[in-house]
Amino acid sequence: MPLAVTHILTTIILVGLYRDHVAKHKRYFTLHTLFIAGFAGLLPDIDFALRMVAEFFNFNIPILLQHGGLAHTPIFGLIFLIPAFIFLKQEKHKKAMYFFVITFGILFHIFLDYFLGGGAGEGVMWLWPISTASFKIHLISRFGMKDIPIALDAILLLGWLWYIEVKHRISDFI
Ligand SMILES: [Zn+2]
User: Fold this and answer.
1) Counted domains in the chain
2) Ligand 1 centre from 167 Cα, in Å?
3) Could you list the residue range(s) of the whole structural domain that residue 95 is in?
């Protein structure tokens, strides 16, 4: 399964590339937006934390809240479109953008879990609540590439550092 850094960085990188090359609107797309994007990219795995808390208190969590459950369904991501469009209608573009990137981060997390492996072992319930059928490609386990997630973390981190160095001259800020 993709590790935390992969989830966070792939989302930040994609939203960052969008910010730099498509939106080109730094006022609505601030560095806070990028931070929120990274946070949202990991948000579905909040069910891990939930499980740890539940185990600590010896509490049984309902199956839908277990890892790979509700937090790994598209509905969880799409729900954030409601505040996004409300803020957009009020012409609060910056706030609206926060919620749009949350939706993107969550959906992209679910896609990565579906594609590379992660969430529930059975796959992603793309159609929940219409259907509980699970779908998966799970490239990593399919090809026995269990070391890949660690390598992916390292490559992404280095690539991203290189990008912000070249594009934004991060070393000027250190
Ligand atoms: Zn996940």
Assistant:
1) 1
2) 30
3) 4-173
